[in-house]
Amino acid sequence: VQLQAYGGGLVQAGDSLRLSCAASGRTSSIFSAAWFRQAPGKERELVASIFWNSGYSSYADSVKGRFTISRDSAKSTVDLQMDSLRPTDTAIYYCALRRLGRSAFEIWGQGTKVTVSS
Fold first, then answer.
1. Are β-strands 91-99 and 107-108 bridged in parallel, bridged antiparallel, or unpaired?
2. 27: pLDDT confidence band, cut at 50, 70 and 90?
3. First-to-final CA distance of the chain
4. What is the dihedral sign for C-alpha 8, 110, 33, 63?
5. How many CA atoms lie within 13 A of 41 on its CB side?
6. What's CA 16's distance to the chain center, in Å?
7. SS3 of 29, please?
8. Residue 94 has what pLDDT?
9. What is the pLDDT of residues 56-91, one digit of tens each?
10. What is the CA radius of gyration of the chain?
11. pLDDT score of 7
12. Coil, strand, or helix at residue 44?
């Protein structure tokens, strides 16, 4: 399975942005998907995750109520809708997949940069 991420850019505080990630290959093996981010000088953090079959999702406290993760199983895509963006959301965002039988997210997209100006 391979991932291609889209949608980053430069926005102002309070704006919205939608990130998309398209999976190709053996997508029937996907168990869950997630978006991570890494800000300059900081460790990578899990932003949101979603179980592929059920659609159940979870979020980091810092983005709850502002970000929404979704997936389209038919298209093998996973999106991250980001609303009410803050300068602290500035980071490189990565989509990732966990396959059936695996204990971690081990397939990664190339990252897309999001910059939120104040």
1. antiparallel
2. confident
3. 37
4. negative
5. 1
6. 14
7. helix
8. 97
9. 999 999 999 999 999 999 999 999 999 999 999 999
10. 13
11. 93
12. coil
